[in-house]
Design brief:
By secondary structure, this protein is an alpha/beta fold. It is built from 13 helices and 12 strands.
């Protein structure tokens, strides 16, 4: 949905952008985008009395599905309909309980007879509450930092009785290279409004892991999405970053930013240090592969 025909469309697109960011964070944070009035903690939260091991798990986010599959693929019985998972021929054979951005299908989940369902805080609250009412255990997560990714992995490993050490070590290898002389960097994820991640987001924390100097790290604003701030054109000019990272949301926002009056006045533009990143990996962790690709591009910036 990209903000209905332009005034209405502009308003709706802002909502879509914020929703996409919230989905990530989802978790992964999600994604699009993590995100609710419920308490947000770095570590996942489980409900009900735990069985000795969860043997049939339904994952409502692509990230949790990917983690389970890498830890013990025999335990994963249901996945979301995500393009990130469809890229893996084996995972794509597992029953899908949702399509795109639609809510998970409760009947499909129940039919799988899971002993654990994992969703994203603020995005899957309603369906998880219904499942809890049916006596099915649930777990929620909010992925807003590297630490929360590691903690989610450990928690899932505990639930399915798997060993997480090797997987967590593989995460750490992705951020082994740090910036030694960090230049001022600004990440822009949309054009109307102009949104940028501060340090309280997955994207912001990822920049911190690489010791990249995020120009918006300490800024606070009125954006409804926690971890993101709304910038005016004047603020972008004031920040005048040496490096610009543009996030491809698939909505043409990058072209609109390049048409803005301030664009050619920025140091990053005049020195040709403008880079485009996919939404998955940088804004919404999405999957381990998406994170790996984002980290690889960030490493090329700091090397």
């Amino acid at each position: 949905m990209i903000y209905r025909v332009f005034q209405f469309m502009r308003s709706l697109r802002n909502w879509v952008i914020i929703t996409l960011i919230a989905i990530f964070t989802v978790a992964c944070n999600p994604a699009i985008p993590s995100q609710s009035t419920a308490p947000i903690a770095n570590s996942p939260q489980t409900t009900e009395v735990k069985p000795t091991v969860a043997s049939k798990v339904v994952a409502l986010t692509s990230l949790s599905a990917d983690i389970i599959y890498r830890l013990d693929k025999t335990k994963l019985v249901g996945i979301p309909g995500s393009r990130l998972l469809r890229e893996n021929a084996e995972i794509s054979k597992i029953t899908q309980v949702s399509e795109g951005q639609t809510p998970p299908n409760l009947e499909k989940i129940i039919a799988l007879k899971p002993d654990l369902v994992i969703g994203a805080t603020g995005f899957h609250d309603q369906v998880l509450e219904k499942l809890k009412g049916l006596g099915i255990r649930t777990m929620t997560s909010s992925i807003t930092s590297w630490k929360s990714l590691e903690e989610l992995t450990k928690e899932i490993a505990t639930e399915i009785k798997a060993e997480p050490t090797a997987l967590i070590k593989s995460y750490q290898s992705l951020i082994a290279q740090k910036a030694t002389k960090p230049d001022s960097t600004l990440v822009l994820v949309s054009s109307q409004p102009i949104l940028a991640p501060n340090k309280n987001s997955w994207a912001g924390d990822l920049l911190t892991q690489f010791q990249i100097n995020n120009a918006a790290a300490e800024l606070q604003g009125q954006s409804p999405q926690r971890g993101y701030i709304t910038l005016s054109a004047e603020k972008v000019l004031e920040a005048n970053p040496k490096v610009l990272i543009l996030v491809d949301m698939g909505d043409g926002a990058i072209n609109k930013l390049k048409e803005a009056p301030f664009w050619n006045k920025l140091d990053a533009v005049t020195s040709d240090r403008v880079y485009t990143f996919d939404y998955y990996g940088l804004v919404n962790p999405g999957s381990i592969e998406a994170i790996s690709k984002a980290c690889s591009k960030l490493q090329s910036l700091v090397s």
